[in-house]
Amino acid sequence: MSTQSAKPVKTKVKLSTPEGRKKMKDAFSSPWASAAAIVIAMLWTIPTFGLLVSSFRPEKDINATGWWMFFVQPNFTLENYESALFQGTAVTPPLSQYFFNSFAITLPAAIFPLTLAVFAAYALAWFDFKGKNFIFFSIFALQVIPLQMSLVPLLQLFAKGLMIGEDVIIPPLGITGTYIPIWIAHTIFALPLAIFLMHNFLSQIPRELIEAARVDGAGWFTLFRQIVFPLSVPAIASFAIFQFLWVWNDLLVGLTFGGGVKDIAPLTVRLAEMVGTRGSNWEVLTAGAFISMIVPLIVFFALQRYFVRGLLAGSVKG
Length: 318
Hints:
Blueprint lengths: L17 H11 L2 H25 L3 H6 L14 H8 L8 H32 L5 H10 L9 H10 L1 E3 L2 E4 L9 H23 L4 H9 L4 H12 L1 H16 L3 H6 L9 H8 L7 H21 L2 H8 L6
Antiparallel strand pairs: 1-2
Helix pairs in contact: 2-14, 4-14, 5-8, 5-11, 5-13, 6-8, 8-11, 11-15, 13-14
C-alpha cells in the first residue's frame, strides 16, 4: 500500500482579521514598497520643481531653454513675481487682489457645507425616523450627477428665479455678481460627499456611549456638543481640508457663477488670463502658478495626517 505525502493546504487570510491586517502592513512596509513610493514621489514632484525653477528665470531664458538649464547657466530674478503680484491694468486687477478673492470664496465655501453636513449626518446616523435610509441613499446617489449638468439650471435660478407656468415659485434672487452664488454652488456640490463621509464616521461611535449619555439625561444637542462633536473632529478636519483644496483650485464654478465680474473672480481665473492670445508671458504664468500653490502646499504639509484619516473614515469597523 503506497502512501502519499500530504500537501499543505493554503488558506486565504481575510484582511478584516488581525493576521490579515498584519500581512498587509508588512507588505506595504517592505523595502520594495518604500522604493516604489520614493520613485513615484520623485516623478510627481519633478513638474512642480520645474515650475518653481522657471518662476525665477528671466523671460529670455525660459523661451530659449528648458528649466534644467538653470543649473548650467544660473540666472536668477524676482521680476516675474513682482509682475504677477503687483502689476495690473485698468481692466484687470493685479494678482494680489485675486488672492484675496480666493480666500473670500474658499473659507465660506468650506464652512457652509461642513456645518450642514455634520448636523445632517448626525441626524441620519442616530435619529430614528421613517425614510431615513432612503434619504441617505438618495443623498449618496447625488454624487454620480455630473457637476456640469447643474450649471445652467443654477444660473437660471440665481438670475431669474423659478417659475412654473405663470406662477412664481422662487422670485429672482438678485445675487448675480456677488460671492453668494459661488458659495451656494460649492455648498450644493460638496454636500453629498460630505454627508456620506460624516455619516459613516459618526455611525461608528459606540452605541453604548450614546445610550449611557441618554440615560444620564443628555439631550440630543448636548449629546452632540459634548460627545459626538469632540469625537468627530478628525473627520471634520479631514473633509475641511479636502473642500478647501477643491474650492481653492476650482476654475469652472468660480468662472461660471462669478458672472465675469473681476472683483469677485478667484485666483484661477486670473491665471487662465495670464498667457496672452499668442502664448506669451510664460514667465509671469510660472510665478503666478506657484503663488497659487503656496496656500494648498501649506495646508497639505501642516495637516497631511488628516488626509489619511479622511480617506479611511468609516471604511473599517472594529
